[in-house]
Amino acid sequence: MRHSSKAFDMEKLLDAVAALVCLVSPDKVKAISSRVRLTVAHGSTSVLSDMVGTPVASGVVNQLVKAWQSTDVSSDELASMLLAASHVFTKTVAEQSTELVWTGPTTPFVSARRTEQALLQVINTARTTLFITSFVAYDVSSIVKALNEASARGVQISMLLESSSEHGGSISIDVIGKMKGLVPSAHIYAWTKKVEPFLEGCVHAKVAVADANTCFITSANLTGFAMERNMEAGILISGGEIPRLLSNHLYALIDTKVVSVV
User: What is the C-alpha separation between 161 and 174, in angstroms, rounded?
Assistant: First the structure.
């Protein structure tokens, strides 16, 4: 029972450390850790509380002190925990950013990028490779223009689109044929060789990945309504593992001949 209590107290301390490094700057964390090394848990409330300037930050510092007082963690150990947590948090934030993307009615309470803006960012930042998937694709002039500009600067463009019913797919319009005319340099792929349990499946994913470093995952098709009128939600991710994994998966679909060029 005592062991369980100690583990719980340590978890509370770790939560408090995480809350602090997420709230204040790395320089402030360094200053707090230096002050921690010079004090002891039971005399630290007044010593540390004057190091931050907002009520929210002060509350987080008090939470840290209270959690610290419930453990036998030394001053040096806590200072090292703060520095290590701050370093990991700062590095993670620098390596990956995530943004909410929304098209449709907005509110004054949440700020979000628009779908067209996010998709154009992915296309415009591509330097070597760009992979886009969509269920349907009608002529969206800004997107077509950006794709052709990407091709002109040497980007290899791959697109996976749903086939028309005439070519074994599920939509009435030949979006693949249209896209070939609009972006002639793009490598267009279709999912035609389906096996169980995917025989009745379709290309319903809507993603865009540039250079395995930036990706946009969205509910929006490549249509004017999706860019301007529908309620569409998505997430724009720069850096980190997700863009790389998504890119690897899409190109693996080509390599394993799940999808084929048309």
Answer: 10
Total-model pTM: 0.72
- Residue 203: its pLDDT value, please? 97
- Cα angle: 97, vertex 100, 105; to 5 degrees: 160
How far is it, in rounded angstroms, from Cα 71 to Cα 92?
28
Tens of pLDDT, residue by residue over 175-194, are 999 999 999 999 999 999 89
Task: At 173, list the tokens.
Answer: 């319009």
Phi-psi region of 239 (alpha: psi -120 to 50; beta: other; left: phi over 0): left
Q: What percent of the chain has pLDDT over 70?
A: 96
Distances in Å between the Cα of 76 and the Cα atoms of 50, 80, 257 are 20, 6, 57
Sign of CA dihedral 24, 27, 30, 32: negative
